[in-house]
Specification:
Elements lengths: L1 H15 L13 E11 L4 E12 L4 E12 L2 E13 L6 E11 L15 E12 L4 E12 L6 E12 L1
Antiparallel strand pairs: 1-2, 1-8, 2-3, 3-4, 4-5, 5-6, 6-7, 7-8
Protein backbone atom coordinates (compact mmCIF):
# COMPACT_ATOMS: atom_id res chain seq x y z
CA UNK A 1 0.00 0.00 0.00
CA UNK A 2 2.90 2.35 0.76
CA UNK A 3 4.29 1.87 -2.76
CA UNK A 4 0.92 2.65 -4.33
CA UNK A 5 0.59 5.81 -2.23
CA UNK A 6 4.08 6.92 -3.21
CA UNK A 7 3.33 6.30 -6.89
CA UNK A 8 0.10 8.32 -6.67
CA UNK A 9 1.99 11.17 -4.99
CA UNK A 10 4.66 11.19 -7.73
CA UNK A 11 2.02 11.24 -10.47
CA UNK A 12 0.27 14.15 -8.73
CA UNK A 13 3.56 16.08 -8.41
CA UNK A 14 4.45 15.52 -12.08
CA UNK A 15 1.09 16.85 -13.23
CA UNK A 16 1.29 19.91 -10.96
CA UNK A 17 4.74 21.20 -12.05
CA UNK A 18 4.01 21.88 -15.70
CA UNK A 19 6.27 24.26 -17.57
CA UNK A 20 4.58 27.65 -17.33
CA UNK A 21 6.88 29.34 -19.87
CA UNK A 22 6.91 26.62 -22.53
CA UNK A 23 6.96 28.33 -25.94
CA UNK A 24 6.73 25.19 -28.03
CA UNK A 25 8.84 23.25 -30.48
CA UNK A 26 10.09 25.06 -33.57
CA UNK A 27 11.39 24.02 -36.96
CA UNK A 28 15.13 23.35 -36.70
CA UNK A 29 15.08 22.25 -33.05
CA UNK A 30 17.20 19.23 -32.18
CA UNK A 31 16.22 16.64 -29.60
CA UNK A 32 18.27 14.20 -27.52
CA UNK A 33 16.56 11.49 -25.45
CA UNK A 34 17.81 8.89 -22.99
CA UNK A 35 15.75 5.74 -22.59
CA UNK A 36 16.40 2.73 -20.40
CA UNK A 37 14.97 -0.49 -19.09
CA UNK A 38 16.05 -3.10 -16.53
CA UNK A 39 14.41 -6.49 -16.20
CA UNK A 40 15.27 -9.07 -13.57
CA UNK A 41 14.00 -12.61 -13.23
CA UNK A 42 15.00 -15.43 -10.97
CA UNK A 43 17.90 -16.66 -13.14
CA UNK A 44 18.53 -13.78 -15.54
CA UNK A 45 18.93 -10.03 -15.61
CA UNK A 46 18.73 -7.82 -18.70
CA UNK A 47 19.20 -4.12 -19.33
CA UNK A 48 18.67 -1.84 -22.31
CA UNK A 49 20.04 1.68 -22.80
CA UNK A 50 19.37 3.94 -25.77
CA UNK A 51 20.49 7.42 -26.81
CA UNK A 52 18.14 8.97 -29.34
CA UNK A 53 18.79 12.01 -31.51
CA UNK A 54 16.34 13.76 -33.80
CA UNK A 55 15.85 16.87 -35.93
CA UNK A 56 12.56 18.77 -36.37
CA UNK A 57 11.98 19.38 -40.08
CA UNK A 58 8.78 21.20 -39.13
CA UNK A 59 7.38 21.98 -35.68
CA UNK A 60 5.38 18.72 -35.87
CA UNK A 61 7.61 16.33 -37.85
CA UNK A 62 10.87 14.88 -36.50
CA UNK A 63 13.22 12.19 -37.88
CA UNK A 64 16.14 10.63 -36.10
CA UNK A 65 18.24 7.65 -35.09
CA UNK A 66 18.67 5.79 -31.82
CA UNK A 67 21.63 3.50 -31.19
CA UNK A 68 21.20 1.20 -28.22
CA UNK A 69 22.91 -1.54 -26.26
CA UNK A 70 21.41 -4.68 -24.72
CA UNK A 71 23.26 -6.19 -21.78
CA UNK A 72 22.15 -9.53 -20.38
CA UNK A 73 23.66 -12.32 -18.33
CA UNK A 74 26.66 -13.37 -20.43
CA UNK A 75 25.44 -11.52 -23.55
CA UNK A 76 25.62 -8.04 -25.04
CA UNK A 77 24.70 -6.59 -28.43
CA UNK A 78 24.13 -3.29 -30.22
CA UNK A 79 21.04 -2.21 -32.12
CA UNK A 80 20.04 0.76 -34.26
CA UNK A 81 16.63 2.33 -34.82
CA UNK A 82 15.65 4.88 -37.48
CA UNK A 83 12.42 6.66 -36.58
CA UNK A 84 9.99 9.42 -37.39
CA UNK A 85 7.48 11.15 -35.12
CA UNK A 86 4.48 13.38 -35.72
CA UNK A 87 3.46 15.69 -32.86
CA UNK A 88 -0.23 16.54 -32.65
CA UNK A 89 0.39 19.74 -30.69
CA UNK A 90 3.65 21.63 -30.22
CA UNK A 91 2.74 24.74 -28.23
CA UNK A 92 1.53 23.03 -25.04
CA UNK A 93 3.76 21.70 -22.22
CA UNK A 94 2.31 18.18 -22.67
CA UNK A 95 1.30 16.54 -25.95
CA UNK A 96 0.85 13.17 -27.67
CA UNK A 97 2.69 12.01 -30.79
CA UNK A 98 2.71 9.16 -33.32
CA UNK A 99 5.89 7.18 -33.96
CA UNK A 100 7.07 4.79 -36.69
CA UNK A 101 10.45 3.06 -36.67
CA UNK A 102 12.65 0.54 -38.42
CA UNK A 103 15.06 -1.28 -36.10
CA UNK A 104 18.00 -3.60 -36.57
CA UNK A 105 17.69 -5.49 -33.29
CA UNK A 106 21.04 -7.27 -33.49
CA UNK A 107 24.14 -7.01 -35.61
CA UNK A 108 25.28 -10.55 -34.77
CA UNK A 109 24.67 -13.16 -37.45
CA UNK A 110 25.85 -16.10 -35.33
CA UNK A 111 28.53 -17.34 -37.75
CA UNK A 112 26.32 -16.86 -40.81
CA UNK A 113 23.58 -19.19 -39.59
CA UNK A 114 21.13 -16.33 -38.93
CA UNK A 115 20.33 -14.02 -41.86
CA UNK A 116 21.09 -10.34 -41.13
CA UNK A 117 17.58 -9.10 -41.98
CA UNK A 118 15.89 -11.64 -39.68
CA UNK A 119 16.89 -9.30 -36.84
CA UNK A 120 15.06 -6.33 -38.41
CA UNK A 121 11.77 -5.03 -37.00
CA UNK A 122 9.11 -2.58 -38.20
CA UNK A 123 7.20 -0.77 -35.42
CA UNK A 124 4.42 1.78 -35.02
CA UNK A 125 2.85 3.40 -31.99
CA UNK A 126 2.64 6.59 -30.03
CA UNK A 127 3.90 8.47 -27.06
CA UNK A 128 3.46 11.40 -24.74
CA UNK A 129 5.90 14.20 -23.86
CA UNK A 130 5.54 16.17 -20.67
CA UNK A 131 7.78 19.28 -20.44
CA UNK A 132 8.98 20.35 -16.98
CA UNK A 133 10.72 23.39 -18.45
CA UNK A 134 11.14 24.87 -21.90
CA UNK A 135 13.89 22.37 -22.82
CA UNK A 136 13.44 19.35 -20.51
CA UNK A 137 10.70 16.67 -20.77
CA UNK A 138 9.64 13.24 -19.59
CA UNK A 139 8.94 11.06 -22.65
CA UNK A 140 7.07 7.75 -22.68
CA UNK A 141 6.23 5.79 -25.81
CA UNK A 142 4.78 2.42 -26.73
CA UNK A 143 5.19 0.64 -30.06
CA UNK A 144 3.99 -2.64 -31.46
CA UNK A 145 5.90 -4.26 -34.26
CA UNK A 146 6.95 -7.42 -36.02
CA UNK A 147 10.28 -8.80 -37.15
CA UNK A 148 11.19 -9.91 -40.68
CA UNK A 149 12.59 -13.26 -39.49
CA UNK A 150 11.06 -16.65 -39.46
CA UNK A 151 8.92 -17.25 -37.51
CA UNK A 152 7.43 -13.76 -37.46
CA UNK A 153 7.18 -12.42 -33.92
CA UNK A 154 5.03 -9.54 -32.73
CA UNK A 155 6.33 -7.51 -29.80
CA UNK A 156 5.20 -4.62 -27.66
CA UNK A 157 7.86 -2.18 -26.46
CA UNK A 158 7.29 0.48 -23.81
CA UNK A 159 10.12 2.92 -23.13
CA UNK A 160 10.32 5.91 -20.86
CA UNK A 161 13.08 8.44 -20.41
CA UNK A 162 14.24 12.03 -20.46
CA UNK A 163 14.25 14.35 -23.48
CA UNK A 164 16.22 17.56 -24.03
CA UNK A 165 15.50 20.12 -26.76
CA UNK A 166 18.66 21.82 -28.05
Amino acid sequence: MKKLTLLALLVFLFTSIQAQEFEGIEKGDKEISFFGMVMAARYATMGYLSLSGGYYFTEKLMAGAAPGVIIASGFSDFNLTLFGTYNFVTDKPAFPYLKASLSQLSFKTYDGTVPFFSNMSLQAGGGYKFFFSERFAWDTNATIGFNFGSPVQVKLTILTGLTFIL
